[in-house]
Amino acid sequence: MTKPHAGSTLRALMDKGIVIAPGAFNALVARSVARAGFHATYISGGATANVAGYPDIGLITLTEMCRTIREIVDASGLPVIADADTGFGEVECARRTVIEYERAGAAALHIEDQVFPKRCGHLDGKELISANAMADKVKAMADARISRDFVIIARTDARHVTSMEDAIARANLYREAGADVIFPEGLHNASEFRAFAKGSPGRMLANMTEFGKTEHLSASDFASLGCSIVIFPLSLMRVAMHAVEGALGSLREHGSFEPMLPNMQTRKDLYALLKYEPGAEWHFGTRED
Hints:
alpha/beta, TIM Barrel, 2 domains, five-stranded parallel beta sheet, three-stranded parallel beta sheet, 8 strands, about 10% strand
């Protein structure tokens, strides 16, 4: 039987209710996301840059992102929503990006209307390209995708650069250009999400990132506000890095990781996550035999 397009699977999930997509910063984490019972995962451009040792300023290349997408798709078996930043260039580059992301196995991508080099969406000092220039990128991507099932998500950062009114106007223009979902970055609270949903009816993605401009809301909160997807882009990386720093402090103090053993994933648990049994044939990917 032919496996359905990942975008078709994601669309079906959105039809059923809000899609919760934890951010996976590598393939092993993506396996954990799938094993925990989530039905989709997210790849943050910021997290991908951070684990390579870079800040989130657009330094990761298209090739690096596609490699990460392939690894996470293969490891998790889940529909993957992937960050495409500003499309890696102008319209021609955006067109190639959607093709390469889809070939890599992604279900969806999001592209934003910032000037390159971009900044984290929850920082001040951002600049926007014109709404028409962004609409041209969105249309090029919508036209160039291999399958109409692939999901195009258009992000606007206008809320903290110009105004909420401009953000809504841009969202509606991007919908007309072919965006399947709108991602309004940096909204403050439930009232702003409610106003945005009223001003730009249609599927909407919420970014629930810690230490940013958006108050903490639950997935059910976002669902009640009209959101179709909620991403948690950096949460798992933040939890992991906090644990890493604590463990290194313990090593420095005790000269051993022995006090940290209760906090470690055991070899047995790692092998179970990888579906690996020493001495037995291991099958690539997540399929059951």
